[in-house]
Protein backbone atom coordinates (compact mmCIF):
# COMPACT_ATOMS: atom_id res chain seq x y z
CA UNK A 1 0.00 0.00 0.00
CA UNK A 2 1.17 3.52 -0.78
CA UNK A 3 0.10 6.30 1.59
CA UNK A 4 0.87 10.00 1.59
CA UNK A 5 0.89 11.28 5.17
CA UNK A 6 0.90 14.92 6.23
CA UNK A 7 3.12 15.31 9.29
CA UNK A 8 2.20 18.21 11.56
CA UNK A 9 4.70 17.92 14.40
CA UNK A 10 3.72 21.24 15.92
CA UNK A 11 5.22 22.64 19.10
CA UNK A 12 7.10 21.60 22.21
CA UNK A 13 7.78 17.86 22.30
CA UNK A 14 5.66 17.31 19.20
CA UNK A 15 8.60 17.03 16.76
CA UNK A 16 10.46 14.60 19.06
CA UNK A 17 7.61 12.13 19.56
CA UNK A 18 6.39 12.35 15.98
CA UNK A 19 9.87 11.44 14.76
CA UNK A 20 9.57 8.15 16.67
CA UNK A 21 6.14 7.46 15.13
CA UNK A 22 7.64 8.01 11.69
CA UNK A 23 10.42 5.55 12.51
CA UNK A 24 7.85 2.91 13.45
CA UNK A 25 5.90 3.48 10.24
CA UNK A 26 9.10 3.34 8.20
CA UNK A 27 9.94 -0.01 9.80
CA UNK A 28 6.45 -1.31 9.01
CA UNK A 29 6.89 -0.19 5.43
CA UNK A 30 10.19 -2.07 5.12
CA UNK A 31 8.89 -5.31 6.65
CA UNK A 32 5.48 -5.40 4.96
CA UNK A 33 6.38 -3.76 1.66
CA UNK A 34 4.41 -0.52 2.03
CA UNK A 35 5.49 2.95 1.00
CA UNK A 36 4.70 5.80 3.36
CA UNK A 37 5.54 9.23 2.00
CA UNK A 38 5.79 11.90 4.70
CA UNK A 39 5.41 15.61 4.03
CA UNK A 40 5.99 18.04 6.90
CA UNK A 41 4.02 21.22 7.49
CA UNK A 42 3.60 23.94 10.11
CA UNK A 43 0.85 24.30 12.70
CA UNK A 44 0.43 25.98 16.06
CA UNK A 45 2.95 28.36 17.59
CA UNK A 46 5.61 27.60 15.01
CA UNK A 47 3.04 28.44 12.33
CA UNK A 48 2.35 31.79 14.00
CA UNK A 49 6.07 32.49 14.36
CA UNK A 50 6.88 31.77 10.73
CA UNK A 51 3.74 32.82 8.87
CA UNK A 52 1.55 34.72 11.34
CA UNK A 53 -1.06 31.95 11.10
CA UNK A 54 -1.55 28.93 13.41
CA UNK A 55 -2.83 27.01 10.38
CA UNK A 56 -1.05 28.26 7.26
CA UNK A 57 -2.95 27.78 4.01
CA UNK A 58 -0.13 25.59 2.69
CA UNK A 59 -0.63 23.25 5.66
CA UNK A 60 -4.38 23.09 5.16
CA UNK A 61 -4.04 22.39 1.44
CA UNK A 62 -1.59 19.59 2.18
CA UNK A 63 -3.92 17.99 4.73
CA UNK A 64 -6.84 18.16 2.32
CA UNK A 65 -4.81 16.31 -0.31
CA UNK A 66 -3.21 13.51 1.69
CA UNK A 67 -4.42 10.14 2.89
CA UNK A 68 -4.02 10.93 6.58
CA UNK A 69 -2.58 13.42 9.05
CA UNK A 70 -0.07 12.52 11.75
CA UNK A 71 -0.23 15.24 14.38
CA UNK A 72 2.03 16.08 17.32
CA UNK A 73 0.95 18.85 19.68
CA UNK A 74 0.31 22.59 19.74
CA UNK A 75 0.94 25.09 22.48
CA UNK A 76 3.52 27.61 23.66
CA UNK A 77 3.54 29.69 26.87
CA UNK A 78 4.33 32.90 25.02
CA UNK A 79 0.87 32.68 23.45
CA UNK A 80 -1.10 30.49 25.83
CA UNK A 81 -0.10 32.48 28.93
CA UNK A 82 -0.79 35.83 27.31
CA UNK A 83 -4.44 36.88 27.85
CA UNK A 84 -4.08 39.57 25.18
CA UNK A 85 -2.91 37.20 22.46
CA UNK A 86 -5.28 37.37 19.48
CA UNK A 87 -3.94 34.19 17.94
CA UNK A 88 -3.29 31.02 19.90
CA UNK A 89 -1.69 27.76 18.74
CA UNK A 90 -4.83 25.75 19.54
CA UNK A 91 -6.79 27.84 17.03
CA UNK A 92 -4.84 26.07 14.30
CA UNK A 93 -5.98 22.65 15.50
CA UNK A 94 -9.61 23.72 15.90
CA UNK A 95 -9.66 25.21 12.41
CA UNK A 96 -8.03 22.08 10.99
CA UNK A 97 -10.69 19.86 12.57
CA UNK A 98 -13.40 21.99 11.01
CA UNK A 99 -11.76 22.13 7.59
CA UNK A 100 -11.24 18.37 7.48
CA UNK A 101 -14.75 17.69 8.74
CA UNK A 102 -13.46 15.68 11.69
CA UNK A 103 -16.45 14.86 13.86
CA UNK A 104 -15.42 11.85 15.95
CA UNK A 105 -12.48 11.55 18.30
CA UNK A 106 -11.68 8.01 19.47
CA UNK A 107 -9.59 7.47 22.61
CA UNK A 108 -8.96 3.93 23.90
CA UNK A 109 -8.26 3.51 27.63
CA UNK A 110 -6.55 0.21 28.46
CA UNK A 111 -3.75 0.01 31.04
CA UNK A 112 -0.76 -2.29 30.60
CA UNK A 113 -0.48 -5.07 33.16
CA UNK A 114 3.22 -4.32 33.68
CA UNK A 115 2.40 -0.71 34.58
CA UNK A 116 -0.64 -1.11 36.83
CA UNK A 117 1.27 0.02 39.91
CA UNK A 118 2.03 3.36 38.25
CA UNK A 119 -1.62 4.34 38.28
CA UNK A 120 -2.62 6.61 41.17
CA UNK A 121 -5.61 4.31 41.55
CA UNK A 122 -5.39 0.97 43.33
CA UNK A 123 -4.44 -2.04 41.23
CA UNK A 124 -7.73 -3.81 42.01
CA UNK A 125 -9.61 -0.82 40.56
CA UNK A 126 -7.71 -0.41 37.28
CA UNK A 127 -6.86 -4.02 36.47
CA UNK A 128 -9.07 -5.25 33.65
CA UNK A 129 -10.15 -1.78 32.55
CA UNK A 130 -10.77 -1.59 28.81
CA UNK A 131 -13.02 1.10 27.35
CA UNK A 132 -13.04 3.59 24.51
CA UNK A 133 -14.30 7.17 24.48
CA UNK A 134 -16.22 8.46 21.45
CA UNK A 135 -16.07 12.25 21.73
CA UNK A 136 -18.09 14.40 19.33
CA UNK A 137 -15.64 16.82 17.78
CA UNK A 138 -17.48 19.27 15.55
CA UNK A 139 -20.13 20.91 17.73
CA UNK A 140 -20.84 22.24 21.19
CA UNK A 141 -19.43 25.32 22.87
CA UNK A 142 -16.06 25.07 21.11
CA UNK A 143 -17.55 26.00 17.75
CA UNK A 144 -20.77 27.88 18.53
CA UNK A 145 -21.36 31.61 18.92
CA UNK A 146 -19.16 33.46 21.43
CA UNK A 147 -19.81 36.94 22.78
CA UNK A 148 -18.12 39.49 25.03
CA UNK A 149 -19.80 42.76 25.90
CA UNK A 150 -18.17 46.10 25.14
CA UNK A 151 -17.06 46.57 28.74
CA UNK A 152 -15.47 43.15 28.85
CA UNK A 153 -17.52 42.19 31.90
CA UNK A 154 -19.99 39.66 30.47
CA UNK A 155 -19.08 36.70 28.27
CA UNK A 156 -21.04 33.82 26.81
CA UNK A 157 -20.35 30.65 24.83
CA UNK A 158 -23.33 29.12 23.10
CA UNK A 159 -23.50 25.31 23.17
CA UNK A 160 -25.32 24.12 20.08
CA UNK A 161 -25.87 20.68 18.59
CA UNK A 162 -27.83 19.37 15.62
CA UNK A 163 -29.51 16.00 15.34
CA UNK A 164 -27.20 15.17 12.44
CA UNK A 165 -24.05 15.80 14.49
CA UNK A 166 -25.30 13.52 17.26
CA UNK A 167 -26.53 10.82 14.89
CA UNK A 168 -23.31 10.26 13.00
CA UNK A 169 -21.10 9.74 16.06
CA UNK A 170 -23.78 7.70 17.86
CA UNK A 171 -23.80 5.16 15.02
CA UNK A 172 -20.01 4.90 15.24
CA UNK A 173 -20.20 4.27 18.98
CA UNK A 174 -22.86 1.57 18.67
CA UNK A 175 -20.99 -0.16 15.84
CA UNK A 176 -17.86 -0.21 17.97
CA UNK A 177 -19.80 -1.65 20.91
CA UNK A 178 -21.12 -4.44 18.69
CA UNK A 179 -17.52 -5.63 18.24
CA UNK A 180 -16.65 -5.20 21.90
CA UNK A 181 -18.72 -5.94 25.04
CA UNK A 182 -21.97 -4.51 23.67
CA UNK A 183 -22.52 -1.58 26.01
CA UNK A 184 -22.75 2.15 25.29
CA UNK A 185 -22.84 4.75 28.06
CA UNK A 186 -24.09 8.20 27.05
CA UNK A 187 -22.62 10.90 29.30
CA UNK A 188 -24.51 14.22 29.49
CA UNK A 189 -26.24 16.71 31.80
CA UNK A 190 -29.81 16.13 30.66
CA UNK A 191 -31.17 17.30 34.03
CA UNK A 192 -30.32 20.87 33.02
CA UNK A 193 -29.04 21.30 29.46
CA UNK A 194 -31.31 21.32 26.41
CA UNK A 195 -28.47 20.03 24.24
CA UNK A 196 -28.13 17.02 26.56
CA UNK A 197 -31.85 16.37 26.34
CA UNK A 198 -31.52 16.30 22.56
CA UNK A 199 -28.59 13.89 22.87
CA UNK A 200 -30.69 11.53 25.01
CA UNK A 201 -33.60 11.64 22.59
CA UNK A 202 -31.51 11.03 19.46
CA UNK A 203 -29.21 8.41 20.98
CA UNK A 204 -32.16 6.62 22.58
CA UNK A 205 -33.85 6.29 19.19
CA UNK A 206 -30.64 5.11 17.51
CA UNK A 207 -30.12 2.56 20.26
CA UNK A 208 -33.27 0.77 19.12
CA UNK A 209 -31.46 -0.07 15.88
CA UNK A 210 -28.86 -1.99 17.90
CA UNK A 211 -30.96 -4.24 20.15
CA UNK A 212 -27.98 -6.37 21.16
CA UNK A 213 -26.21 -3.31 22.64
CA UNK A 214 -27.14 -2.12 26.15
CA UNK A 215 -27.57 1.66 26.37
CA UNK A 216 -26.84 3.31 29.69
CA UNK A 217 -27.03 6.98 30.74
CA UNK A 218 -24.89 8.91 33.24
CA UNK A 219 -24.81 12.56 34.20
CA UNK A 220 -21.34 13.96 33.60
CA UNK A 221 -20.61 14.66 37.28
CA UNK A 222 -21.45 11.08 38.20
CA UNK A 223 -19.47 9.79 35.22
CA UNK A 224 -16.41 11.71 36.41
CA UNK A 225 -16.67 9.88 39.72
CA UNK A 226 -17.43 6.47 38.21
CA UNK A 227 -14.37 6.61 35.92
CA UNK A 228 -12.26 6.77 39.06
CA UNK A 229 -14.06 4.39 41.41
CA UNK A 230 -15.15 1.72 38.90
CA UNK A 231 -13.64 2.16 35.42
CA UNK A 232 -14.19 -1.51 34.55
CA UNK A 233 -17.93 -0.90 34.18
CA UNK A 234 -17.42 1.01 30.92
CA UNK A 235 -17.18 -0.36 27.40
CA UNK A 236 -17.95 2.52 25.01
CA UNK A 237 -18.48 6.04 26.36
CA UNK A 238 -20.37 8.42 24.04
CA UNK A 239 -19.98 12.09 24.94
CA UNK A 240 -20.24 15.64 23.61
CA UNK A 241 -17.24 17.83 22.84
CA UNK A 242 -16.48 19.79 26.02
CA UNK A 243 -17.37 17.01 28.46
CA UNK A 244 -15.37 14.59 26.32
CA UNK A 245 -12.29 16.80 26.36
CA UNK A 246 -12.35 16.87 30.15
CA UNK A 247 -13.26 13.27 30.91
CA UNK A 248 -10.85 11.72 28.41
CA UNK A 249 -7.96 13.51 30.12
CA UNK A 250 -9.28 12.38 33.48
CA UNK A 251 -9.43 8.81 32.22
CA UNK A 252 -5.80 8.99 31.10
CA UNK A 253 -4.62 8.76 34.72
CA UNK A 254 -5.88 5.17 34.83
CA UNK A 255 -2.95 4.04 32.69
CA UNK A 256 -0.31 5.75 34.83
CA UNK A 257 0.88 8.25 32.22
CA UNK A 258 -0.79 10.49 29.67
CA UNK A 259 2.22 9.68 27.48
CA UNK A 260 0.73 6.26 26.71
CA UNK A 261 -2.56 7.24 25.13
CA UNK A 262 -3.19 7.64 21.39
CA UNK A 263 -6.24 8.96 19.60
CA UNK A 264 -7.81 9.10 16.17
CA UNK A 265 -10.16 11.71 14.73
CA UNK A 266 -12.39 10.81 11.79
CA UNK A 267 -14.51 12.64 9.26
CA UNK A 268 -16.34 11.34 6.24
CA UNK A 269 -13.20 11.32 4.11
CA UNK A 270 -10.34 12.52 6.32
CA UNK A 271 -8.54 11.19 9.37
CA UNK A 272 -6.05 12.59 11.86
CA UNK A 273 -3.99 10.67 14.41
CA UNK A 274 -2.41 12.20 17.50
CA UNK A 275 -1.26 11.50 21.05
CA UNK A 276 -3.64 13.01 23.60
CA UNK A 277 -0.90 14.78 25.56
CA UNK A 278 -0.03 18.42 25.06
CA UNK A 279 3.12 20.15 23.89
CA UNK A 280 4.88 19.88 27.30
CA UNK A 281 7.26 22.77 26.54
CA UNK A 282 9.26 22.18 29.73
CA UNK A 283 10.54 18.91 28.26
CA UNK A 284 11.34 20.24 24.79
CA UNK A 285 14.74 19.10 23.53
CA UNK A 286 15.56 17.08 26.66
CA UNK A 287 14.95 13.60 25.22
CA UNK A 288 12.61 12.70 28.08
CA UNK A 289 9.16 12.81 26.45
CA UNK A 290 7.31 9.50 26.17
CA UNK A 291 6.87 8.66 22.45
CA UNK A 292 4.57 5.66 22.98
CA UNK A 293 1.31 7.61 22.58
CA UNK A 294 2.53 8.98 19.27
CA UNK A 295 3.69 5.55 18.11
CA UNK A 296 0.35 4.00 19.07
CA UNK A 297 -1.40 6.77 17.15
CA UNK A 298 0.55 5.56 14.13
CA UNK A 299 -0.77 2.06 14.90
CA UNK A 300 -4.31 3.45 14.82
CA UNK A 301 -3.48 5.00 11.44
CA UNK A 302 -2.52 1.55 10.16
CA UNK A 303 -5.77 0.07 11.49
CA UNK A 304 -7.75 2.78 9.73
CA UNK A 305 -6.38 1.58 6.39
CA UNK A 306 -7.07 -2.07 7.16
CA UNK A 307 -3.44 -2.93 7.94
CA UNK A 308 -4.32 -4.94 11.04
CA UNK A 309 -1.33 -7.30 10.99
CA UNK A 310 0.97 -4.31 10.74
CA UNK A 311 -0.74 -2.40 13.54
CA UNK A 312 -0.63 -5.48 15.75
CA UNK A 313 3.12 -5.61 15.18
CA UNK A 314 3.43 -2.06 16.48
CA UNK A 315 1.35 -2.92 19.56
CA UNK A 316 3.56 -5.98 20.09
CA UNK A 317 6.71 -3.85 19.88
CA UNK A 318 5.35 -1.35 22.41
CA UNK A 319 4.37 -4.20 24.75
CA UNK A 320 7.90 -5.63 24.48
CA UNK A 321 9.47 -2.25 25.27
CA UNK A 322 7.32 -1.97 28.39
CA UNK A 323 8.02 -5.59 29.35
CA UNK A 324 11.80 -5.04 29.09
CA UNK A 325 11.52 -1.65 30.84
CA UNK A 326 12.77 0.26 27.81
CA UNK A 327 10.72 3.29 28.80
CA UNK A 328 11.05 6.99 29.56
CA UNK A 329 11.26 8.63 32.97
CA UNK A 330 7.51 9.05 33.40
CA UNK A 331 7.22 5.26 33.55
CA UNK A 332 10.51 4.55 35.35
CA UNK A 333 12.30 7.39 37.19
CA UNK A 334 15.54 5.38 37.04
CA UNK A 335 15.37 4.69 33.32
CA UNK A 336 18.49 5.12 31.21
CA UNK A 337 16.40 5.50 28.08
CA UNK A 338 15.00 8.60 26.48
CA UNK A 339 12.59 9.50 23.70
CA UNK A 340 14.98 8.51 20.93
CA UNK A 341 16.10 5.24 22.53
CA UNK A 342 12.53 4.06 23.14
CA UNK A 343 11.59 4.92 19.56
CA UNK A 344 14.68 3.13 18.22
CA UNK A 345 13.90 0.02 20.25
CA UNK A 346 10.32 -0.16 19.00
CA UNK A 347 11.20 0.43 15.36
CA UNK A 348 14.03 -2.11 15.52
CA UNK A 349 11.74 -4.69 17.10
CA UNK A 350 9.39 -4.23 14.15
CA UNK A 351 12.30 -4.69 11.75
CA UNK A 352 13.63 -7.83 13.43
CA UNK A 353 12.48 -9.00 16.83
CA UNK A 354 15.04 -11.82 16.64
CA UNK A 355 17.76 -9.25 17.25
CA UNK A 356 16.37 -8.90 20.76
CA UNK A 357 17.93 -12.26 21.63
CA UNK A 358 21.04 -10.21 22.22
CA UNK A 359 19.36 -7.33 23.99
CA UNK A 360 20.33 -6.31 27.48
CA UNK A 361 19.23 -3.35 29.54
CA UNK A 362 22.69 -1.81 29.61
CA UNK A 363 22.88 -1.30 25.86
CA UNK A 364 19.68 -0.91 23.88
CA UNK A 365 21.55 -1.11 20.59
CA UNK A 366 23.21 -4.51 21.02
CA UNK A 367 22.30 -6.78 18.12
CA UNK A 368 20.05 -4.16 16.57
CA UNK A 369 20.00 -2.21 13.35
CA UNK A 370 19.57 1.52 13.76
CA UNK A 371 17.23 3.61 11.63
CA UNK A 372 18.57 7.06 10.83
Fold and architecture overview:
The chain has 372 residues and is an alpha/beta fold. It is 40% helix and 17% strand. It contains 13 helices and twelve strands. Strands 2-1-3-12-11-4-5-10-8-9 form a ten-stranded mixed β-sheet, sandwiched between helices. The longest helix has 19 residues, at 14-32. The protein is globular and about 60 Å long.
How is this fold's topology laid out?
Elements: E1 2-10, H1 14-32, E2 35-40, H2 45-51, H3 57-64, E3 68-73, H4 77-80, H5 89-100, E4 104-109, H6 123-126, E5 131-136, E6 146-148, E7 155-157, H7 163-179, E8 183-188, H8 194-207, E9 214-219, H9 220-229, E10 236-239, H10 241-251, E11 262-266, E12 271-275, H11 292-304, H12 308-323, H13 339-351
Parallel strand pairs: 1-2, 1-3, 3-12, 5-10, 8-9, 8-10
Antiparallel strand pairs: 4-5, 4-11, 6-7, 11-12
Helix pairs in contact: 1-11, 1-13, 7-8, 9-10, 11-12, 12-13
Summarize the structure.
The chain is α/β, with parallel strands linked by helices and 372 residues long.
N-to-C series of helices and strands? EHEHHEHHEHEEEHEHEHEHEEHHH
Structural class: alpha/beta
Radius of gyration: 21 Å
Level of helix content?
Answer: 25-40%
Would you identify the regions where 5 or more consecutive residues have pLDDT less than 50? 364-372
Mean of the pLDDT scores? 93
Q: Could you give the count of β-strands?
A: 12
Strand content: 15-25%
Tally the helices: 13
Shape descriptor: globular
Strand order in space, largest sheet: 2-1-3-12-11-4-5-10-8-9
Terminal Cα span = 23 Å
Largest sheet: 10 strands, mixed
Amino acid sequence: MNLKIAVLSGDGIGPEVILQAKKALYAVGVVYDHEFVFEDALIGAIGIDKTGNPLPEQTLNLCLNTDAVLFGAVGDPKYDSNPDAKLRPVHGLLRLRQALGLHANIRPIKPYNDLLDLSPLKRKIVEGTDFVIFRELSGGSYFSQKELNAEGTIASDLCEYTEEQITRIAHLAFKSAQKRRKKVTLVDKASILETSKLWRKVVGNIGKEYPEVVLDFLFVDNAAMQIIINPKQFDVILIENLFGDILSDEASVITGSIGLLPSASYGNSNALFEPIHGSYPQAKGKNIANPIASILSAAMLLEHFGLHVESQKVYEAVQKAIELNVVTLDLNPYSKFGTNEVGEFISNYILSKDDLLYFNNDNVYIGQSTIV
